[in-house]
Every structure is written in structure tokens, then in C-alpha cells.
TrEMBL record, chain A:
Record InterPro entries: Cbr1-like_FAD-bd_dom, Cyt_c3_hydrogenase_gsu, FAD-bd_FR_type, Flavoprot_Pyr_Nucl_cyt_Rdtase, FNR_nucleotide-bd, MRET, OxRdtase_FAD/NAD-bd, Riboflavin_synthase-like_b-brl
Pfam family of the protein (one): NAD_binding_1
Protein name per Swiss-Prot or TrEMBL: Oxidoreductase
An annotated GO BP: pyrimidine nucleotide biosynthetic process
PROSITE patterns found in the cross-reference section: FAD_FR
A single GO molecular function term of this UniProt record: 2 iron, 2 sulfur cluster binding
Limits of the FAD-binding FR-type domain: 4-106
UniProt-listed PANTHER family: NADH OXIDOREDUCTASE HCR (PTHR47354), PROTEIN RFBI (PTHR47354:SF5)
From TrEMBL, chain B:
Taxonomic classification: Bacteria, Pseudomonadati, Bacteroidota, Cytophagia, Cytophagales
Coiled coil regions, renumbered to chain: none
InterPro entries per record: OxRdtase_Mopterin-bd_dom, OxRdtase_Mopterin-bd_sf
Pfam family, one: Oxidored_molyb
Organism of origin: Spirosoma aureum
Oxidoreductase molybdopterin-binding domain ranges (all copies): 37-183
Name of this protein: Sulfite oxidase-like oxidoreductase
Region (Disordered): 15-34
Length: 246, 204
């Protein structure tokens, strides 16, 4: 097998998604179509040769050829994320390799099966690639995204997600605000719990493919509760995301 | 000087132990959890651990029998393919050498498929499990190993990336030749040496 080579991408655009999250559009000299859910490794090199590497999920669908969007949350004290947020401008070079990962991916043969996406915070990024790809291929499978965020400020891609939900009767967006809901909010205002997951699972006529991504605690609790509620563990794919935290 | 470098980027974390951190890794003080799916619940009354495959007589231990085996303390650095390394982790458990004293391996046995509750598998060359290189961990930092970290028992092979250290270990199957396990089928390295940065199959 040929080595997944490092390549030097160019930053084409930077979008401030939320106060702590930016999306970097990278133009790749050797672009390879990815599967939604896959990631790229990104490597920073200092002038003295010191290197730091992190993995970032791809937010864009494979239909966006020649480039990828990496959505990066600024981590307090994060060596790589803080440089990306503060030191990088359009036109700058960045070294990446990918796409990587073959398990936490939404494959086209799942396009006719119901889909349950559950995200905490920046865990929404790989799920967004799935939703964008799903829209591009015109899939009509029943799909729900349950998205847990602290405040309205933290809801990455919220406008696009609401737009998608408006346009597509088979896609439902459920937001829950764990710290502070926006004024007039009548939906969920708590952490994802068993009652919420029971309610979400009820919407599906058959077992959905489940993808859960977010901070460790959320992923552990959600995956284990889904399993308790009868979703077969082979249907539950998990990925931990974001800072290692303590 | 590096041929390519990112302007203005420099080391932010002072690491006193950088010679213990393999390339591309960073040190973390906490213990992140990474799994492909839900955490299996394994009642100790039905837990068992088996050696099978290319051995003369397969053997199986209950939780009680396994805990009665000679145990040792281990202090190791561990390295996860998702880039974190954790130094000086303290474990107690049963050395694979101790387990192998109970069986006669067939001469053609060259590799092992470790298999777990929850159907996880991972492949390891036999020699990487022997001579003090690997153990079944039962306690971590003085406490019974938590389910999310692989409890009640996980394989620990500190010199390879940590996905080789199968959580919720159920047994070892001795094989002739190598075969990919769960992540290996998904494109990860067949061997996983952190010092050679063998993350993906194409790095082998």
C-alpha cells in the first residue's frame, strides 16, 4: 500500500463559525475523495524542527472537489489549535495528510437506511460532512441530528442545519442547550439523557445507523444508553472529539 | 533547520520528557477514552479468559481463577494513535509469560489475535507479547480498571500504539501468520510501532 503522503495545502478561506471555532478551507495539490466521517492529520513544524500533529475531521462533502474544510475548535492552551486560530491567514501553507479512517464513516450503502446523528459541541463536524453529502446525493432516508450545545453561540453550522431541516422533510434537527437557551426557546434545555434518547429513537420505524461524536462523557453515556434502549451495538459508531479535558 | 516550517510556530508545551514522547505525539496527564462503540457490561460471574488456537490444550480461566494467578506491578508509558501519550502509568495484572506457562504452543504459532467482549479484535506478533513485554491489566493506578478503560481486564502492550492493548479482553488466539484485526482491517498499521510512527497500514 502506498504511504498516505504529507502534502502542503494552501489555506483558501477562513470562516469564523462561533467565537471559538473556525473553518479552514484548504486547497490540496493531491486531493482524494473522502468518506464523510474521515479525518486529516495536520502537522505544524517550527523553524527548529519541532513538530506537533493533530487529527481534524473533514466538514466538507466529497462533492467539494480539490479542497477540504477542516473545522477546528480553539482549545485553551492548545498548541496546534491556537496557532491555527491566531497564526494562520488565507494563503498560508499547511501540511496535511489523509483522508484517514474507515469505521466512523457514513457509506453510500447506508443511504437507504435511517440515520441517527448525535453530537456534542464540535463533535458535529464529521456529522456535518455526512449531512452535506447526504443532501448532495439526494438521499431521502429518515435522518435526525440531536445536537447538544452549551449556548446558542456554540451551535456550529446552526443556520445551515436549520436551512437543511426546512428544505428536507426527511431531516430533523433537534437542538438541546445545556447551559443557556436562547430567549423564547421551547425545546430541550438539558444534557442528552435517557428520556431524550427514548423520544428520539421512537421516531424511527427501524433501527437507525447511529453515529455519536463529542466529548468523552457525552459519547460514553449516549452510546451506552442507546445500547440499553435496544439499539444493537453494531449499529452504534462512536468517536471522541475535541480536547482531552480532565 | 526544517525544510518546511510554519512561520511563528514554536513549542508551547515545555516537556521535560520529550525523549520519551514518540514522533507526532504529545503528553497528556488525563486518560482519554477511545472506543468504536458502546462499553460492554461484563458481569464477573460470567467473565472468562481463554488461550486457544495453535496450542496443545486450550485453557480457560474464570475471574476467580484468573485473579489467583501470580500478579505483578507494571509502570509504563502508553501511546495512543490519536496522538496522546501518557507517561508513568501504573498497572497491576498478569504477565502474558505467566499465562503461557500453562500451555504448550505449537511451533507454527507466530501471531496472536486478541479478541474481546464486544467483538473487538487486534493482531500482534507472538514475540511482542512475551519476555515481559505485555500483560493483562486488572488494576490501574491502584483501582480496579474502569469499564470505559477496558475493565474488568484489558490487554496492555505498552511498546505498541494503544489500540493493540485490547479493552475487555476475552482471550488470545494463536495463529500461523498474521491477519488483520478490527482497526487493522479499517486501514490501521498491522504492527503499530509508535517510534516508527506506524499509524496507518501505508506506514508499515
Amino acid at each position: 500500500m502506498e504511504k498516505i503522503q504529507w502534502q502542503i495545502a494552501r489555506v483558501k478561506a477562513i470562516v469564523q463559525e462561533t467565537p471559538h471555532v473556525k473553518t479552514f478551507t484548504l486547497h490540496l495539490p493531491q486531493w482524494i475523495p473522502h468518506l464523510p466521517g474521515q479525518h486529516y492529520d495536520l502537522r505544524l513544524t517550527a523553524e527548529d524542527g519541532y513538530q506537533a500533529e493533530r487529527s481534524y475531521s473533514i466538514a466538507s462533502p466529497p462533492e467539494k472537489t480539490g479542497e477540504i474544510d477542516l473545522t477546528v475548535e480553539l482549545i485553551e492552551d492548545g498548541e496546534v489549535s491556537s496557532y491555527l486560530h491566531e497564526g494562520i491567514e488565507p494563503g498560508d501553507p499547511l501540511e496535511v495528510r489523509g483522508p484517514i479512517g474507515g469505521y466512523f464513516v457514513w457509506k453510500d450503502n447506508m443511504a437507504n437506511e435511517p440515520l441517527l446523528l448525535i453530537a456534542g459541541g464540535s463533535g458535529v463536524v464529521p456529522l456535518m460532512a455526512m449531512l452535506r453529502h447526504r443532501a448532495k446525493i439526494g438521499a431521502a432516508n429518515p435522518t435526525t441530528l440531536l445536537f447538544s450545545v452549551r449556548t446558542a453561540d456554540d451551535a456550529i453550522y446552526r443556520d445551515e442545519l436549520e436551512q437543511l431541516a426546512k428544505q428536507d422533510s426527511q431531516f430533523e434537527l433537534i437542538l438541546t442547550f445545556t447551559r443557556k437557551a436562547p430567549p423564547g426557546w421551547t425545546g430541550y434545555q438539558r444534557r442528552v439523557d435517557q428520556a431524550m434518547l427514548t423520544d428520539v429513537l421512537k421516531r424511527f420505524a427501524s433501527h437507525p445507523n447511529g453515529f455519536v461524536c463529542g466529548p468523552t462523557l457525552l459519547v460514553e453515556q449516549v452510546a451506552n444508553t442507546l445500547s440499553d434502549l435496544g439499539l444493537p451495538s453494531t449499529k452504534i459508531r462512536t468517536e471522541r472529539f475535541g480536547p482531552t479535558g480532565t | 533547520m526544517a525544510s518546511f516550517f510554519n512561520k511563528g510556530f514554536g513549542r508551547k508545551r515545555e516537556s521535560v520528557s520529550s525523549e520519551r514522547i514518540p514522533p507526532g505525539q504529545y503528553e497528556t496527564r488525563d486518560f482519554p477514552v477511545l472506543t468504536a462503540g458502546p462499553t460492554p457490561r461484563i458481569p464477573l460471574t460470567t467473565w472468562s479468559f481463554a488461550l486457544e488456537g495453535l496450542i496443545e490444550t486450550p485453557i480457560q480461566w474464570s475471574w476467580e481463577q484468573f485473579n489467583a494467578l501470580p500478579q505483578q506491578s507494571f509502570t509504563n508509558d502508553i501511546h495512543c494513535v490519536t496522538k496522546w501519550s501518557k507517561l508513568d502509568t501504573h498497572w497491576e495484572g498478569v504477565s502474558i509469560d505467566t499465562l503461557l506457562e500453562h500451555v504448550n504452543l505449537k511451533p507454527e504459532a507466530s501471531h496472536v489475535m486478541a479478541y474481546s467482549y464486544g467483538d473487538y479484535t487486534t493482531n500482534i506478533p507472538l514475540d511482542d507479547l512475551r519476555h515481559g513485554k505485555a500483560f493483562v491489566g486488572l488494576r490501574f493506578e491502584g483501582q480496579p480498571l474502569a469499564p470505559e478503560h477496558g475493565g474488568p481486564a484489558r490487554l496492555v502492550i505498552p511498546h505498541l500504539y494503544f489500540w493493540k492493548s485490547a479493552k475487555w479482553i476475552k482471550g488470545l488466539r494463536f495463529m500461523e501468520g498474521d491477519k488483520p484485526g478490527f482497526w487493522e482491517r479499517g486501514g490501521y498499521s498491522m504492527y503499530g510501532d509508535p517510534w516508527k510512527e506506524q499509524r496507518y497500514r501505508s506506514d508499515d
